[in-house]
Amino acid sequence: MSLEYAPRGLVGMLTPQANTTVEPEFNLLWPAGVGMINARLMSDGKTLAARLVDYFDTYETSLRQFANAPIGVAAAACTGASYLAGHAREAALVADIEARHGFPFITAALAVVDALTVLKAKRIGLVSPYPDDLNAASIGYWQSHGFEVTDVARTLNDESTFHPIYSLSGSNAGRALQELEPKTLDAIVMLGTGMPTLRPMAAAIGWGGAPVMSCNLCLAWRAVTALDGATPSADTLNSWLRGEPWAARLSR
Q1: Separation in Å, CA 214 to CA 6, 25, 34, 221
Q2: Alpha-carbon torsion (199, 154, 213, 33), positive or negative
Q3: Residue among 94, 126, 102 at smallest CA distance from 112
Q4: What is the per-residue pLDDT across 172-203, written as a single tens digit (0 to 9) for each?
Q5: Is 227's pLDDT higher than 80?
Q6: Which residue from 15, 25, 35 is spatially nearest to 77, judged by alpha carbons?
Q7: What is the CATH number of domain 9-108+216-251?
Q8: What is the spatial distance between Cα 170 and Cα 216, in angstroms, rounded to a whole number?
Q9: What would be the CATH architecture of the domain defined by 112-215?
Q10: What burial letters (b/e) apply to 72-100, b meaning 16+ CB within 10 Å?
Q11: Which string of DSSP letters, residue by residue, matches the chain?
């Protein structure tokens, strides 16, 4: 079924309840013909970790917000939930949702895994906006997928009354990213779907460091690949890493 504003396909996105970054970044990232509808992941948890656990446990019920919309792929724009659930539980949940609904279900964390895999990256650096406990869980998650985390550049706005990650600016993220430019790495991942990353990534196109990707960019790339029924490849990912065509839209 073709939609007026999504002839290439419609993505159903699950977004943490207070995340202010997902919609604006994906609206810049999507290529022509791809549309998105958004549903909010909800939790009354008092801590970040408690909310992330709730989000993971309610992915299935959160998909009901899309009702019978003709989505071609569902995506979860939340990396922290994957870290805490772990490699095996995440894989089992993804397989179950896909079997129940008949469309691909992609988490942001698994999209990053796919991106690093097609690039044949082993030694990775992270730009992390997480507090200590979630940062440690993140490192453990990437290691469980066979990657060697050799460098971590930290940035966190722990004085914010709103949110320590969502209140970060692109310049905060960019300063942390610059710490990794001279490192010997196969790839750099800017973590978190709530940290603004597009301007720092655009500034790093053609720089002297390793290829730079973010969770949102990887998730957009994997969702479009799934909509097209294509196999993830380094060729298609590299065009995204070069900013095609999102960097031009960002500059405007």
Answers
A1: 24, 11, 19, 11
A2: negative
A3: 126
A4: 888 999 999 999 999 999 999 998 999 999 99
A5: yes
A6: 15
A7: 3.40.50.12500
A8: 14
A9: 3-Layer(aba) Sandwich (3.40)
A10: bbbbbbbbbbbbbbebeebeebbeebeee
A11: --BTTBSSEEEEEEEETT-SSHHHHHHHHPPTTEEEEEEEE----SSHHHHHHHHHHTHHHHGGGGTT---SEEEE--SHHHHHH-HHHHHHHHHHHHHHHSS-EEEHHHHHHHHHHHTT--EEEEEE---HHHHHHHHHHHHHTT-EEEEEEE---TT-SS-TTTT--HHHHHHHHHTTTTS--SEEEE--SSS--HHHHHHTTT-SS--EEEHHHHHHHHHHHHHTTPPP-HHHHHHHHTTTTHHHHHH-
> Tell me: the pLDDT tens digits for 84-140?
999 999 999 999 999 999 999 999 999 999 999 999 999 999 999 988 999 999 999
**Residues near 82 by Cβ (< 8 Å), separated by ≥ 6?**
56, 90, 107, 108, 109, 110, 141
Task: Name the nearest CA neighbour of 151 among 123, 173, 171.
Answer: 123
Under 8 Å CB-to-CB from 76, ≥6 apart: which residues? 14, 41, 55, 59, 105, 106, 107, 108
Q: How far apart are CA 62 and CA 65, in angstroms?
A: 6
User: Where in the sequence of the chain do the CATH 3.40.50.12500 domains occur?
Assistant: 9-108+216-251, 112-215
Residue with tokens 């490699």: 87
The backbone region for 189, taken as left when phi is positive above 0, alpha when psi lies in -120 to 50, beta otherwise, is beta
pLDDT of residue 155: 83
Q: Is the pTM of this model over 0.90?
A: yes
